[in-house]
């Protein structure tokens, strides 16, 4: 949690069980030689499901992202419109929210960069969605050699 008074820092938590279940869905379709449903989003190997648990839902004002990448690479954070359910096994492309947050660290750089306008709009949208959700799920896509263990991320709100 953020040390400053009035700040609420909510970490991204990798949901290993849900990620595994979604990967099993993909394997099952492959083994049965069956096509996915129209518009179904199947997890690629570099995609993982994360969650943010809102310990407070109301009167949140987005302040900033706190994304730390231990090595160069890129992570794309996409929110989902799923409500109340941990079962994203049949996640549909239309359930993926826009805009997305894209965060990267270049070789030799110490700071993580992002497209600030999209990240700001995305953060504000998350604050709005928190009013009706206790948990929000995210699809994180890792590229450039970056892996989940090399990410520490959170969203900071004014509470």
TrEMBL record:
Source organism of the structure: Horornis vulcanius
Organismal lineage: Eukaryota, Metazoa, Chordata, Craniata, Vertebrata
A biological process term (GO) from this entry: signal transduction
InterPro entries, per the entry: Olfactory_marker, Olfactory_marker_sf
Domain of life (superkingdom): Eukaryota
The name this protein goes by in its record: OMP protein
């Amino acid at each position: 949690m953020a040390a400053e008074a009035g700040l609420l820092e909510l970490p991204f938590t990798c949901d290993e069980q849900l990620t595994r279940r979604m990967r099993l869905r993909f394997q099952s379709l492959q083994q049965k030689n069956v096509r996915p449903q129209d518009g179904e989003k199947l997890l690629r190997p570099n995609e993982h499901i994360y969650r943010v648990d809102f310990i407070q839902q109301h009167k949140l004002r987005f302040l900033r992202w706190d994304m730390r990448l231990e090595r160069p690479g890129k992570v794309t954070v996409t929110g989902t419109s799923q409500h109340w359910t941990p079962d994203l096994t049949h996640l549909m492309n239309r359930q993926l929210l826009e805009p997305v947050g894209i965060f990267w660290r270049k070789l030799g750089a110490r700071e993580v960069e992002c497209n600030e306008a999209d990240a700001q709009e995305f953060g504000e949208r998350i604050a709005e969605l928190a009013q009706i959700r206790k948990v929000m799920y995210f699809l994180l896509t890792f590229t450039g050699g970056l892996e989940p263990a090399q990410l520490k991320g959170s969203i900071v709100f004014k509470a």
